[in-house]
Specification:
The protein is α/β, with parallel strands linked by helices and 181 residues long. It is built from five helices and six strands; from the N terminus they run H-E-H-E-E-H-E-H-E-E-H. The chain has two domains: 127 residues, Ribonuclease Inhibitor (Leucine-rich repeat, LRR (right-handed beta-alpha superhelix)), CATH 3.80.10.10; 53 residues. It has a six-stranded mixed beta sheet, covered by helices on one side. The radius of gyration is 24 Å and the shape is elongated.
């Protein structure tokens, strides 16, 4: 075991976890991230239970090309960007990210449904036809708001620079130019 907890491959090999070829049980194993593992193992796995760990990164989750069920409840996944990679899991049907910081972000559910179109259950709640219809609408609205927010921030930055330039010009006229007259 490493000083900061075991890696996924440590757990598979060093702890000789009994597993069938399709399921990986990593509940309460103090794992911090899902590192790359040999592809022949990753290809077999269809179910991962990895709740109650310290996982903050799932950047290599796409190595599990046949994954259908993923439980990452009670970990440390924080941002919507962190879960974008789930869109590469084309067979993913059930996902649980409950009790992760990301699950408390507004519109997390709609965003996740949008990026994982094959998902049937999210956080132990079945995805309805209405959920599927609403998700793209919400994401479109959020993208528009985001773009507007960027434009507002750009305008504020420009105005701040103009104000700074004006203050510098004023200071030049008041303090420095009189010395050269």
């Amino acid at each position: 075991m490493k000083a900061n907890g075991p890696t996924l491959i440590d757990f598979i090999y060093d702890h000789h976890q009994p597993r069938d070829n399709r399921k990986l049980n990593l509940i309460n194993c103090q794992i911090r991230r899902l590192d790359p593992i040999p592809q022949h193992i990753a290809n077999e796995i269809q179910i991962i239970f990895a709740s109650n760990n310290y996982i903050s990164s799932i950047q290599h989750i796409d190595q599990f090309t046949n994954l259908r069920v993923l439980s990452l409840s009670s970990n440390n996944i924080k941002y919507l960007d962190d879960i974008d990679i789930l869109s590469k899991l084309v067979f993913l049907e059930k996902l649980s990210l409950q009790k992760n910081p990301v699950a408390f972000i507004p519109f997390y559910r709609e965003y996740t449904i949008f990026i994982c179109p094959r998902l049937e259950v999210l956080d132990d709640r079945k995805i309805s036809a209405q959920d599927r219809q609403e998700a793209p609408k919400v994401i479109t609205k959020l993208n528009t708001l985001f773009e507007q927010g960027i434009l507002i921030m750009l305008r504020i930055t420009i105005l701040t620079h103009i104000e700074l330039m004006w203050k510098c010009s004023k200071m030049l006229r008041k303090e420095i130019l009189p010395k050269y007259r």
